[in-house]
Structure formats: C-alpha cells, structure tokens
TrEMBL record:
Belongs to the GTP cyclohydrolase IV family. The record marks 160 as: May be catalytically important. The lineage of its organism: Bacteria, Pseudomonadati, Verrucomicrobiota, Methylacidiphilae, Methylacidiphilales. This is GTP cyclohydrolase FolE2. The gene is folE. The keyword Hydrolase applies. One of its GO terms (biological process) is tetrahydrofolate biosynthetic process.
Length: 273
C-alpha cells in the first residue's frame, strides 16, 4: 500500500487549483508558448572525437488551443530532463514528440543554441588553438509530420575585390559571418559545413597565429578577394553539389572595416515539394 509521504503528496496535489486548465473565453489560439532561455548542459556528436560537451540555450514551445487559459510550464523542463544530455538529429525528435504528448499539443518546437568548438592548426607553424562556432538546432512536429533545420554560423576573413583593384597599396579586409541553415536527408556534420564555408571565403579564421601564420593568411586573403555577394554564391555552389541537402539558406554579413555599416547578402534554395 502507498506510504504516508505518497498519500500526503497526492492529497496536496488534489487540493491545489489548476489555473492553467481553466476555460478561456476569448477564443484566441496561441501558436507558441513555453519556456525560453533555459541553459542546459548537452553532449553533441563530434565528427573527430565522437562527442563533445557544451552548454545550450534551449527553447521548448507548443501550441495552446483557444479554450485553455494556460500551459503547464513545469512539464517542459520535466521532458527535457527525462531525455538526458546526448543531443543529435535522431533523439531530438523524442523530446518534440514527448512535448506533444505531455502537453496535449498539435505542434511542438525544440530550439537549442550552443557554442561548438574545433581545434585548428595554424597553417604554417601548426600551432593549435580552439575556435568556437555558433550552432542552432530547430526541431518541430506538426501532428505526425516532423521538421529539422540545422544552423551553423562561421566567422571568416573577406577582402574587398574593389579595394584591391583600385588601391596602389593593400586592400581593406574584415571579419565576416556566414550563417548556413540546411534541411537534409542524411546526417551532415557540423564540421563539414564549417569547412565548406571557410573554403568559400578569402581566408579562414584562427585563434592562434604566429608571425609566419599571419603572413600566410594575410597573403591568402589578398589572393582570394570576395564581395559579400561572392561569398554567399560560393557557399551555395558547394551546397548544391551535395545531394543530401534538400534546402538551404545562406546569409553573410561583413563587418566593414572602412564603413560604419555592415554589408549583407542572402541566398535561399527553395524546398522541393
């Protein structure tokens, strides 16, 4: 038979008002409601080292029918905690479906943003340093249909072709950020997207460079000038060559070194139906 503690908990729960389940008469459906900004330690699959530990900022969201006053916020955190720390394309949908079930929702969304680290060797001296990249997983379920989008933001160096063409000495260059969102059939590694973007820019970014390395990357950028338009087109061409990618969106933003504004470009591949 139940112990005294269990009986007391059940009695307390029965006596507390459930305001969220009360009827709402305004007849307005809420399309997304839940928790945002929840920091949670996760373990992400790593191409070179099987997995790596990082900390994600998590959003857990569902729809709310018009006749319910509110949702049960604690259940979102319960679902996340119940699924452990290993996160990848396959198991993230178990979180989404559990949100649908536990919160009686038609749609559910799980968004995780986290820094992802890669050890890079400097191009000449081989000096090792960690570079962080921002990654975002967006998983969603609409009744029985599911959707997954992976975002990877990659810092790069870009050098202006026009500045190089018109200047007697040097050319202005700057740090750019390329954000790539993809839907895919087979798993695409985060590392592969980073490598693809870096190959499309004037030069990759490194965390540790000695003088021979700095000379190399400076001259590499000078030999490979790209406008922000070139950058997104270069990335798009490489994405088009991968038959496992169904859809993509590429955004590039150059933090201009001689202007007080940024240069921006975007290209998107339509999702085939």
């Amino acid at each position: 038979m139940p112990n005294v503690s269990t009986l007391m908990k059940n009695s307390l729960s029965a006596s507390l008002a459930d305001c969220q389940s009360q009827q709402d008469h305004r007849k307005i459906k809420i399309h997304r409601v839940g928790v945002k900004g929840l920091r949670y330690p996760i373990e992400v699959r790593d191409k070179n080292f099987e997995s790596q530990h990082t900390v994600a900022t998590v959003s857990l969201l569902v729809d709310l029918p018009h006749h319910f006053k509110g949702t049960h916020m604690s259940r979102f955190v319960e679902v996340l905690n119940a699924h452990g720390r290993m996160v990848h394309v396959c198991n993230v949908f178990s979180i989404v479906h559990e949100l649908q079930k536990k919160l009686h929702a038609e749609t559910a969304h799980v968004i995780m943003e986290f820094p992802y680290f890669i050890e890079k060797n400097a191009p000449v001296t081989g000096s090792k340093g960690l570079v962080d990249y921002q990654v975002r997983f967006e998983a969603a379920a609409y009744l029985d249909e599911t959707d997954f989008v992976m975002w990877v933001t990659v810092p790069v160096t870009t050098l202006c072709p026009c500045s190089k063409a018109i200047s007697d000495r040097g050319a202005h260059n700057q740090r750019g950020y390329v954000s790539v969102a993809i839907r895919f059939v087979q798993t695409i590694w985060i590392e592969d997207i980073i490598e693809l973007v870096e190959a499309s820019a004037s030069s990759p970014i490194y965390s540790l460079l000695k003088r021979p390395d700095e000379k190399y990357v400076t001259e590499l950028a000078f030999d490979n000038p790209v406008f922000v338009e070139d950058l997104v087109r270069n990335v798009a061409l490489r994405l088009n060559a991968n038959q496992d990618i169904l859809w993509y969106r590429v955004e590039a933003e150059n933090m201009e070194s001689i202007h007080n504004h940024a240069a921006y470009a975007c290209v998107e591949k339509e999702l085939e139906t």
